[in-house]
Amino acid sequence: MRKLFLFALLLAFSFLMVACSSASSSTDGNDASEGDSDNQSEDSSSSNSESKDTLVIGLDDDPPQLDPHRSSAAVDRQTFQSLYNKLIDINENLELEPELATDWNISDDGLTYTLTLQEGVTFHDGTDFNAEAVKFNFERMLDPDFASPRASEVNLIEEVNVLGDYEVEIVLSEPFAPFLSVLTDRAGMMVSPTAVEELGDDFANQPVGTGPYEFVERVAQSKIELTRYEGYWREKPAIANVEIRPFPDANVRVTNLVSGELDLLNKIAFKDIEKLKEDPSITLLEKDALGYQGIHLNTEVEPFTNKNIRQAINLAIDREAITRVVFHGGAVPAVSAFAPSSWAAPDFEQPNADVEAAKALVEESGLTDVSFTLKINPKPEEEQMAQMMQAMLSEVGITMEIEMVEFGTMLDQLSTGDFEAVRLGWSGRTDPDGNAYRFFYTDAPNNYTNYSNPEVDGLLDEARTVSVQEERKAMYDQLSEILWDDAPYIFLYHERDYKAMKNYVKGFEHVADTMVRTESVYFE
Amino acid sequence: MEQATEANVKQKIPNPRVEMFKAMMGRFFQNKLAVLGGFFTFLLIFMAIFASVIVPHDPIEQNYSEIMMSPSADHWFGTDEIGRDIFSRVIYGAQVSLQAGLISVGIALAVGVPIGLISGYYRGFWDEFVIMRFTDAMLSFPPLVLALALAAVLGAGLENAMIAIGIVLTPNFIRLIRAEVIAHREREYVEAGKASGLRDWRIILIHILPNTLAPIMVQATLAIASAIISEASLSYLGLGTQPPDPSWGAMLADGQGYLSDAPWIALFPGIFIFITVLSINLFGDGIRDMLDPKLK
Q1: Looking at domain A56-61+208-288+498-523, which of 3.20.20.30, 2.60.40.10, 3.30.2090.10, 3.40.190.10 is its CATH number?
Q2: What is the pLDDT of residue A250?
């Protein structure tokens, strides 16, 4: 029976590969760019020729669109790394590094940021990158008619002043220490003003940036083709073309990597960690990421109006078991919003699976028959974890029902407050403010738990105004303590980020923001 | 001598009902596949009823030191991704599946039979333009899509899944019974009943209904099989049985991600869905042949 089964599996995979290879051979280069750079875009994208000149990347989903100022999906950001430059970058040690901005100065009151820009940079359409372009980009994000998801990150900007061709001044209405780190993500990505004015909304389908690769063609749900930008301001990338393909199913993704259809994956299933580590043809890179995962408890509904119950859940869960069984070591237990890779990570340890203490808390609460429903996304890992927690909580006398809800519906119910508990995490930001403020400040946009604590609000506000890291660390430590004690959100684990690639793929810089930076990659 | 005459007498005056039953059983047992199907069906029912006695482990007990173990003497079908015994879960899953099959068909019968009887007996506007067009509309949906939509509206869970499947199966019963009743209402015995002044409900319930039982039974048996598949499909998609209760469909979904590492997680529930549905269908076919007097 097993042999038959394996044979069937093999057959299925071979069909899959046939399907994939025939898809990649029907390519004709459609050059979207104009100006002085288009004559070099030679296009050869048969992926398995002897002289390999295309890096084929497998993503966990199809990017909804390619405009960084419109983007609200995490998967978009992966593609942007090739198409755009950011004003500032972060390196492997999470330190800020110059990219389009070669230098920056912050005034003593923390309100004025003066950026010196890189000279000699052009967009893929030939437009010059300068202070005017920077001004245009920020105004675009702040335009209420454009309704950019970036607006909430840059809405403290009062004005953008052009001081010279390559010098720009950004004035904030109040001090905001995380501002520079905001510029390392999509808000710092510069798009071509000429292209935006020409294309309007269609820019999201024909993106023009300053990045190492320019856009060639996109077939929705199938592939995005990029080719080296010959007018690139830094050293040009070694590989001529990049092809990005979406594979939502983790098994299919890994199978395609092993078979050689793909060169690099941005995400793997945790169960495959061991297998890929052992495979001699695969390089598996591992890095602590910046996000956290856990459970939002609605503090306005029973039984979570009762702090004892929230604390009991916090204590009852065996985080070690979850990270070991579900994540195969690909995650570490979490007790705060700050991952081990962040400077704000607290030094304290909290009890793990203290069943007796949890039982005592349930008794203290004065409630009997404590029960609630946890909403989860229908994914194998989620179900596995939920069932483990269900068993752990039943030991302390709490009944947890599990309800599987489609992701979009779940987000709706989160924002309307139609839930008791929801399993949802956060991908994380370089600055700790991005991991805490929006979730735990009173009435903040993502404060789904309806948590409100003046002390927490005070700490979050203060940490925004101070720019000395040690001082901010002390505030975030205090915050972590309070959040552990109040337990509006049950922190469960911090994921590690994995990038899997064929062993001939070299030069990949693995940064904790989990992005695929193609610029430095080469084949050996 | 006396005994022999007695036997002769019995042979000479055979009870027609007993004879008919004998002939029917004969027809059924001639069909080897139907017998096999029936055997497995009853074996499954037996397993479902005595699940708590049969299973070696608690179906929802998690053992984190024994995750994804291949089949062994202790775990006949291996263990799943959080260390639960798959054999125990498959046996308990039989309970869920049979329950889903029987209850959803029960719902379809409870709603479909009365509507079909009344609609077929009285005919007229309500029958022709309301009930029949309504069943047409429902039948025009692919069954699983309709069940999915209903289950999504009602909310996830086994009870709601059974209601959704029951609703989806109902139009088939309405149409079947209506057709049977229409054939019967023109027969002499109905005419005779009317002539002797019997009330309509007596004619419908006491005279027509028993005559339509054979096709209802066959249809119901086959519907159980499709209801089991529907429940497995809904659970597979997360709308049926909720964790940690074992359902074959949900187990299949769980195991899907581990096909290359631990194929047994999905394999055994898959085999059981296959065998169960096949057995019930074969059994149903056997019953149909058995009840059909035209087949010899």
Answers
A1: 3.40.190.10
A2: 86
Q: Check CB contact of B149 with chain A, cutoff 8 Å.
A: no
Using a CB-CB distance cutoff of 8 angstroms, which residues of chain A are in contact with residue B244? 387, 390-391, 402
CB contacts, 8 Å: A250 with chain B: 257
Question: What dotted CATH number matches B29-60+73-290?
Answer: 1.10.3720.10
Does B63 lie at the interface with A, CB-CB under 8 angstroms? no
Could you tell me if the ipTM is greater than 0.85?
no
Residues ≥6 apart with Cβ < 8 Å to A7 = none
Residues of A with CB under 8 A from a CB of B: 1-2, 5-6, 9, 250-251, 255, 269, 271, 275, 321, 324-326, 378, 380, 383-384, 386-388, 390-391, 401-405
Per-residue pLDDT at B1: 47
Residue A506's nearest CA partner among A20, A43, A45, A52 is A52
Question: Euclidean distance between the first and final Cα of chain A, in Å?
Answer: 42
B122 burial (CB, 10 Å; 0-12 / 13-18 / 19+) is: middle
Helix boundaries (H) for A396-453:
407-416, 433-440
Going from N- to C-terminal start, the domains of chain A cover 56-61+208-288+498-523, 76-205, 290-497
Mutation site for B-interface testing, chosen from A371, A381, A403, A413 by largest number of B Cβ within 10 Å: A403
CATH entry 3.40.630.30 includes domain A76-205:
no
Facing B62 at nearest CB: one of A269, A388, A403: A388
The bridge status of strand A213-219 relative to strand A370-376 is unpaired
SS3 B21: helix
Coil, strand or helix at A317? coil
According to DSSP, residue A501 is labeled: E
Instruction: Using a CB–CB cutoff of 8 Å, tell me whether B244 touches chain A.
Output: yes
A166 and A102 in contact (C-beta within 8 Å)? no
Residues of B in contact with A390 (CB under 8 A): 243-244
Kindly report the CA angle at B261 between B256 and B265, in degrees rounded to 5?
50
- Return the structure tokens found at A52: 């390999």
B186-195 residue pLDDT tens: 889 998 998 9
Cα B12 to Cα B22: distance, rounded to the nearest angstrom: 16
Span B223-275, pLDDT tens digits: 999 999 999 999 988 888 887 889 999 899 888 878 888 899 999 999 999 99
Smallest Cβ–Cβ distance between B259 and the set A251, A325, A326 belongs to A251
B4-58 residue pLDDT tens = 555 555 556 778 888 888 888 888 888 889 999 999 999 999 999 999 898 889 8
CB-based burial, B219-249: b 16+ in 10 Å, e otherwise: bbbbbbbbbbbbbbbbbbbbbbbbbbbbbbb
Q: Record the pTM.
A: 0.76
Comparing alpha-carbon positions, the chain B residue that sits nearest to A387 is B244
Q: Which two tokens stand for residue B205?
A: 């319930």
Give the C-alpha separation, A231 to A38, whole Å: 10
